[in-house]
Specification:
By secondary structure, the protein is mostly helical. It has helices spanning about 1-20, 30-50, 55-65, 70-95, 105-125, 135-150. The relative contact order is 0.14.
């Protein structure tokens, strides 16, 4: 039990660090470029934090597979990220900055899973994605976010 409590505390600390300055995406921007800047900042912050905490993220994944309490903790963490992003998407839809008419929670879930699995594959699995820099990964993630939300890259 002490080991489980210690692990839970470490993982909570990692989550707080990963969310740290990035607790909420800014939705007060009134231009597409301001919104894109906020999304880019959040994506880079997440990828950098994931890279820095890759061992802890791998441990979290392993433990979650065998321990129902950790599985719930992991699901709660993912739900918080999805809800945060869904709130941002909804606000931007209401402002008319991003494409409306699509379910913000479903968009958020798809985008959040894409980013987290990409980070896991790049920084934990060490597969071919490990050859890419955080900046290269972030540029690709940004492009997917922008196109999904109707904020296509302006050349």
């Amino acid at each position: 039990e002490d080991r489980s409590e210690l692990l839970a505390a470490v993982l909570e600390q990692v989550e707080q660090e990963m969310r740290g300055r990035n607790r909420t995406l800014r939705t007060d921007g009134d231009t597409v470029e301001e919104v894109k800047g906020s999304i880019s900042h959040a994506n880079r912050f997440y990828l950098e934090s994931f890279r820095k905490n890759a061992k802890e993220m791998a441990l979290m994944e392993q433990v979650a597979l065998s321990d129902p309490a950790f599985h719930r903790q992991r699901q709660e963490r993912a739900t918080r990220f999805v809800k945060r992003n869904a709130g941002m998407i909804r606000t931007l839809q209401d402002k008319g900055i991003v494409r409306a008419g699509e379910d913000p929670e479903m968009l958020s879930a798809a985008l959040s899973v894409m980013v987290s699995r990409l980070a896991y594959n790049a920084f934990v699995e060490g597969n071919f994605l490990s050859e890419y820099t955080v900046e290269q990964l972030a540029e690709t993630v940004d492009e997917v976010w922008f196109r999904t939300l109707g904020l296509e890259k302006v050349e």
